Amino acid sequence: MATTADFRNGLCIEHNNELYTIVEFQHVKPGKGGAFVRTKLKNLKTGKILQNTFNAGVKINIARVEKRPYQFIYKDDTGYHFMHNETFEQVVIQENIINAPELIKEGQEVEITFHADTETPLICELPPFVELEITYTEPGVKGDTATNTLKPATVETGAVVNVPLFVNTGEKIKVDTRTKEYSERAKK
Q: Tens of pLDDT along 42-85?
């Protein structure tokens, strides 16, 4: 058992019989009344953000979670197959716990968070940016670089990302996995 004094960003707690991670917290000591802690909690199953207030000193159950490095192998009817980088153990994960399934490609390194007590996968996170090759986009017009106009481009995973007009088919780009938007051209 821990208390609100042990709160820190990224801590995984049990709240209302569900697992949450602390996204943000703030200790508040008003002039009158007792101190409390304002928090933003992210549900590990649904991904929804919940705002909650805890009285200072309240006992909280901390859930033990482990982040492990995995590599994406392939996808089939049963789900997404991943292999642990050190033990070569394989695990199958459903699409709903992957943060950007449309941007994952074979060989992609990911981090899977497991509930340490039950060994169930909770969330699969891609790195913040992934490099993908553009398989199709309309050709850009020479000299058309002054505006911030975007055009759709299909990347090697099949996802469609809006890119600037000067980006062409065959180029590699960096895509932000949190927003699923174009970031920049990949460095050669």
A: 888 777 889 999 998 889 999 888 889 999 999 999 999 999 98
Residues 6+ apart with CB under 8 A from 154: 134, 135, 136, 137, 160
Secondary structure of 34-47 in the HEC alphabet?
Answer: CCEEEEEEEECCCC
69 and 58 both lie in a single domain: no
DSSP assignment, residue 141?
P
Per the CB < 8 A criterion, the answer to whether 37 and 62 are in contact is no
Beta-bridged to residue 90, according to DSSP, are: 83
Quick one: 31 and 9 in the same domain?
A: yes
Record the tokens describing residue 133, joined without a space: 């090759």
Domain that holds residue 19: 2-62
Q: Can you give 144-157 as a three-state secondary structure string?
A: CCCCCCEEEEEECC
Q: Do 74 and 115 reside in the same domain of the chain?
A: yes
> What pLDDT, in 10s, does the model give residues 85-109?
899 999 999 888 888 899 999 999 9
| pLDDT tens for each residue of 134-188 | 999 988 766 666 667 888 999 999 999 999 888 888 999 999 988 889 989 888 7
Q: Which of 35, 62, 89 is the last residue of a domain?
A: 62
Q: Which two tokens stand for residue 183?
A: 């970031």
Identify whether residues 138 and 168 lie together within a single domain. Answer: yes
The CATH number of residue 173's host domain is 2.40.50.140
